[in-house]
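Lab notebook page, bench 4
Experiment: in silico fold of construct C2
Operator: M.H.
Input chain length: 119 residues
Purpose: comparison with the prior construct
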Amino acid sequence: MHLFLDLLGRAAAPIALFCVGATLPPVTLAVIREALSATFIKLVVMPVAICGLCFWSGFEGENLAVPVVAAALPTGANAFLLARGSTTHGAASATTVVIATGLSLVTLPLLLYWLKSIR
């Protein structure tokens, strides 16, 4: 039973992203604009703001890195699931999850490299 639940738990995140991708509604230019702005805020503005607040508060090393990296993580599938009930933002939230996950493959390694260099 423990092995089964462990395997099921490891598969939850990839399955959630697959479900988001499989249920993507039609995407318009307006939806892409909204998703790109939300992705920019999530992957750039939030980490910069958190880094500034933490640095101003005197955080250093790992104490600085942990909240900054947590703020820089992509939008999760749970945002899509919550917005899916809304008829106006379901498409934008799904598109944001997909774009943010894809772009975080570039932004997170760059952020980790930068955080390692400021130690």
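Observations: Residues 2-117 form one domain. The chain has one domain: 2-117.
Next step: discuss at group meeting.
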